[in-house]
Automatic annotation (TrEMBL):
This is Azoreductase. Belongs to the NAD(P)H dehydrogenase (quinone) family. Transmembrane segments: none annotated. SUPFAM superfamilies: Flavoproteins. The keyword Oxidoreductase applies. The keyword Magnesium does not apply. Residues 4-179 form the Flavodoxin-like fold domain. One of its GO terms (molecular function) is NAD(P)H dehydrogenase (quinone) activity. One of its GO terms (cellular component) is cytosol. Keywords: Oxidoreductase. It comes from Ruegeria atlantica. It comes from the Bacteria.
Length: 197
């Protein structure tokens, strides 16, 4: 098996979390199989997560932390993002990271467009795995919310800049897990990490 360059982004803003546990579990399993792994914890990053005026020509200069992670994105062949779903979306700091780091000229090209008129993605040739935790039951996420957050991450964020395919692992009941659930979840993440999937 060809060793992959894997970037793991622990997208939980706290220093301890299930997201961090899953990120580290995946990393350990992937490293044991000979993959090249870089790990980033969102809680360690210092940056202004307000995009400000929000236009393509005049955005804030990237702080060193954001520049380094953006270089890690460019280096990677496979992205692993672990994060909780809060209020139907991503944590504010993680969303701010995306707002600030996914900028034109680095992750998408406004000078060139796709067949349907979107800016051309610049991070093509890469795949992704997203591991989400939530208290929303899986059936409710699927049939009532229609997997809105999953579609946003897959199509409007990662797909927009070139990550395809993006696969998802969804764990519900995360705040008060049933006995044995966390151990089963960790085992599943370890299997995924060993396969670099």
């Amino acid at each position: 098996m060809h060793p992959k360059k894997i970037l793991i982004l622990d997208g939980h803003p706290g220093e301890t979390s299930l997201s961090r546990t899953f990120a580290e579990t995946y990393a350990d399993a992937a490293k044991q199989q000979g993959h090249d792994v870089r790990m980033v914890h969102l809680s360690d990053l210092q940056f202004d997560h307000d995009f400000g005026q929000g236009n393509y020509e005049d955005f804030k200069p990237l702080e060193p932390a954001l520049e380094q992670v953006l270089q890690d994105f460019e280096w990677s062949e496979h992205l692993v993002l672990t994060a909780p779903m809060w209020w139907g979306g991503l944590p504010a700091k993680l969303k701010g990271f995306i707002d600030r780091a996914f900028i034109p000229g680095r992750t998408f090209d406004t000078r060139n467009t796709t067949r349907i008129g979107f800016p051309a993605p610049m991070l093509t040739g890469r795949t992704a795995r997203v591991i989400l935790t939530s208290d929303t039951p899986g059936w409710f996420m699927r049939f009532i919310y229609r997997q809105a957050l999953i579609r946003q991450i897959r199509d409007q964020i990662l797909g927009f800049v070139g990550f395809k395919p993006t696969r998802f692992t969804y764990f519900s009941g995360a705040s008060y897990p049933k006995p044995g659930s966390v151990d089963r979840w960790i085992s599943k993440v370890a299997r995924i990490g060993a396969a670099a999937a």
